[in-house]
Amino acid sequence: MSASSDDPRLRMIGVRKRFGATVALDGVDLLVQPGEVHALIGENGAGKSTLMKILSGAIAPDEGRMYLDGQAYRPVSPLDARRRGIAMIYQELNLAPHLTVEENVMLGIEETRWGLVLRRGPMRQRVLAALAELHHPDIRPDVRAGDLSIGARQLIEVARALVTDAGIIVMDEPTSSLSQEDTAHLFELIRRLRGRGVSIVYISHFLEEVQQVADGFTVLRDGRVTGTGMVSQTGAGRIIEMMVGRGLDEMFPRVDHHVGGVVLELDDLCGEPLPRHVGLRLCRGEILGLFGLVGAGRTELLRAIFGLAPVQSGRITVAVAAPTLTTDDGATPSRRLSQGVGMLSEDRKAEGLALPMSLADNITLSRLNAVGRWGFLNLSRQRQAARRWIDRLDIRTRGPQQTAWDLSGGNQQKVALARLLHQDADILLLDEPTRGIDVGAKVQVYRLMGELAAEGRAILFVSSYLPELLGVCDRIAVMRRGRLIDVRGASEWSEQDMMAAATGGGA
Questions:
Q1: Does residue 63 fall inside a structural domain?
Q2: Residue 506 lies in a domain
Q3: What's the Cα-to-Cα distance from 56 to each of 88, 175, 211, 243, rounded to whole Å?
Q4: Would you state the pLDDT for residue 45?
Q5: For residue 482, what is the domain's CATH number?
């Protein structure tokens, strides 16, 4: 097949892939035009990541054909795909944290003289040109990647795609770790790239983002295409039906629950360097949302409460079974676990899961005594406990013995949540619990939070997604620059009010 001006940028035809007895892709077609932002949509486990791994050369298809600009395409490795103009930006970061930004951006495509000496001047110019497109002051060539925030590290992945002059850029949940300001910059960058004829495959669970940036879309469910079309001509409700196979009657289901007495109290809590002089009460049976922009101190606050970050001054009162007053008492995560406090980290890859271990191990790690006897682990009891939570959270897996590494991002997040449920924690500190989860799974998590509140558990819920905070929380607190600005009932807030409080626009 010879290339012509009428050829699509990418055509994938009848792509199939099996992993043992599991059919990951069953005859998938995908068509992307030059200069098009094409949304690839589907629930976790629908096959999106597998399809993109085939495109990027990470795995080979069992059947099917691919064409780039009309030419047959079958990459033998990710490097081969990169050289052919395919750039991947994964949701789970693939950076070397000990290397600088420049070294990460140029990793694998370094310029050399005679194959021996690095051409640092031209490399630095390419990196600077890519970073200038990002408009992020913290991302400089000589800064170690590991010293940057998760959001900034996500943008380094974007820079890696820019330096290759890729014809197709695949963005997998690119805004999941970005502030609203960084997200706005990314969307503007996407529009500029589209104007240059670059094609973008955009994977996101935020349908409002898809409606804002995408031209066409393809929906996958259980490894099959269930719908295609133009975003501007298709409502969000119809796309959700294609994703889940049914309509969603309620995006934010409400479960009746009663708010009781105080179980966690912060009095003038100061960390190093954040938070600053925070006073807050969390009650039994309450869902308390915590909003703020990047750098507001929300994550630092949760880590200080859980003993993962030092407390400089102030008092933390945990009162579940019996009141425990702590004034910079050197609280540790193990002590908090014994007090009935559980935490879900926003960085599930580094802190939320032991990825090489099985689902059964991950789910039961925080409470092994429940699946053991006389100090010995009962493997049958462990698998039984894991299956209970796998079924309740609808985790797409081959079984409790499958490794967490093999799951999609959203299913990994469910495993991290299952660990807290198995732990039987009374106070749940949830840092971005719906990050990277599809629409249907989000509804499951919202309903689960309501059910846990109805059981009398207290939930402190950090989120950057305003609609879900307003939809599921009893009260919402807003932080800015490490300080707690305001706490109100959810019905007393609007998105505009929350953003004004977070930015200082209402102060």
A1: yes
A2: yes
A3: 7, 21, 25, 24
A4: 79
A5: 3.40.50.300
Q: Are residues 265 and 194 in the same domain?
A: no
Please list, in sequence order, all residues whose beta carbon lies within 8 angstroms of the beta carbon of residue 121, skipping any fewer than 6 positions away: none
Predicted pLDDT at 505: 65
Q: What is the 3-state secondary structure (H, E, C) of 192-244?
A: HHHHCCCEEEEECCCHHHHHHHCCEEEEEECCEEEEEEEHHHCCHHHHHHHHH
d(CA 234, CA 239): 7
Domain count, the chain: 3
Alpha-carbon distance of 155 to 166, in angstroms, equals 16
Position 444 in a domain: no
How far does Cα 327 stand from its chain's mean position?
34
Q: Are residues 420 and 431 in the same domain?
A: no
Of 244, 271, 300, the domain-final residue: 244
Task: Identify the pLDDT of residue 1.
Answer: 42
How confident is the chain (507 residues) per 10-residue block, as mean pLDDT?
70 95 93 98 87 96 97 95 91 86 91 84 93 86 90 85 91 81 85 94 89 96 95 90 76 93 96 94 98 90 95 89 48 91 90 94 95 91 96 91 89 92 95 84 90 96 92 97 96 92 73
Residues with Cβ < 8 Å from 196, sequence gap 6 or more?
35
Cα separation, 134 vs 150, in Å, equals 15
Res 468: pLDDT = 92
Range of the domain at 409: 347-424
Asked, for residue 446, whether it belongs to a domain, the answer is: no
Contact call for residues 371 and 385 (beta carbons, < 8 A): yes
With CA atoms as reference, report the closest residue to 332 among 360, 358, 351, 307.
Answer: 307
| One domain for residues 240 and 255 | no
pLDDT of amino acid 328: 42
- Six token digits for residue 81: 């795909």
